[in-house]
C-alpha cells in the first residue's frame, strides 16, 4: 500500500508541477504561497522580509533587512514530505474517518511547521551567517523530518491500539 500510494501521489504532484510551470505564481502556486507566508512570519518576528522571483532559476529570493539570504525552491514547499507522510499512514490504514482526519491534521501540521522552519532558518542565517551550512543541513531538515517522525510514531500507536481492541 505504501509504494502504491506514494507512486500515485508523486505522479499527481509531478503533473501539478508540469501544469503550473509557466503560471503567474512563480515557481508554482504552493511554493509561491509558502514563500509569501514565510515572508509574513519573518515580518511578524520584527524583521523586514521580502520575497522576489529569482529570474535565473525556478525559485523565490528570500531577503531579510535588505540582505539576500536564501532561495525558496519547489522542494521547500514540503509537498514531497507530505506525500511521504500520507503514504505511510495509508499503509497502516485504520478506520476510514480516523485515517483521513489524521492525514488531514498531519498535513496541516507539517505545512505549518514548514513555514515556521523557513522563517527560523532565515532569521538564523541573518543573525548567524557563519552557521548557515549547519542551520540548513542539520537544523532545517531536523525540524520537518522530526515532525513527520513524531506523527508516524503517534499514528502507529493509534493504529496498534485499534488493532488490539
UniProtKB/TrEMBL annotation:
GO terms for molecular function: peptidase activity. The keyword Membrane applies. It is a multi-pass membrane protein. It comes from Salegentibacter echinorum. Keywords: Cell membrane, Hydrolase, Membrane, Protease, Transmembrane, Transmembrane helix. This is Exosortase family protein XrtF. One of its GO terms (cellular component) is plasma membrane. InterPro entries: Exo/Archaeosortase_dom, Exosortase, Exosortase-related_prot_XrtF. The chain crosses the membrane at residues 68-93, 100-126, 138-160. The keyword Transmembrane helix applies. One of its GO terms (biological process) is proteolysis. NCBIfam families: exo_archaeo (TIGR04178), exoso_Fjoh_1448 (TIGR04128). It is found in: Cell membrane.
Amino acid at each position: 500500500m505504501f509504494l502504491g500510494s506514494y507512486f500515485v501521489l508523486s505522479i499527481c504532484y509531478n503533473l501539478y508541477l508540469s501544469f503550473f510551470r509557466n503560471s503567474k505564481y512563480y515557481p508554482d502556486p504552493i511554493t509561491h504561497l509558502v514563500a509569501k507566508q514565510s515572508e509574513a512570519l519573518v515580518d511578524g518576528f520584527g524583521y523586514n522580509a521580502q520575497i522576489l522571483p529569482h529570474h535565473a532559476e525556478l525559485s523565490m529570493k528570500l531577503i531579510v533587512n535588505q540582505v539576500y539570504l536564501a532561495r525558496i525552491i519547489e522542494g521547500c514547499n514540503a509537498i514531497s514530505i507530505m506525500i511521504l507522510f500520507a503514504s505511510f499512514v495509508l499503509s497502516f490504514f485504520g478506520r476510514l474517518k480516523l485515517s483521513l482526519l489524521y492525514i488531514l491534521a498531519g498535513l496541516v501540521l507539517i505545512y505549518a511547521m514548514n513555514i515556521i522552519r523557513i522563517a527560523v532558518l532565515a532569521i538564523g542565517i541573518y543573525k548567524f551567517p557563519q552557521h548557515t551550512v549547519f542551520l540548513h543541513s542539520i537544523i532545517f531538515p531536523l525540524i520537518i523530518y522530526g515532525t513527520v517522525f513524531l506523527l508516524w510514531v503517534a499514528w502507529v500507536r493509534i493504529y496498534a491500539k485499534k488493532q488490539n481492541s
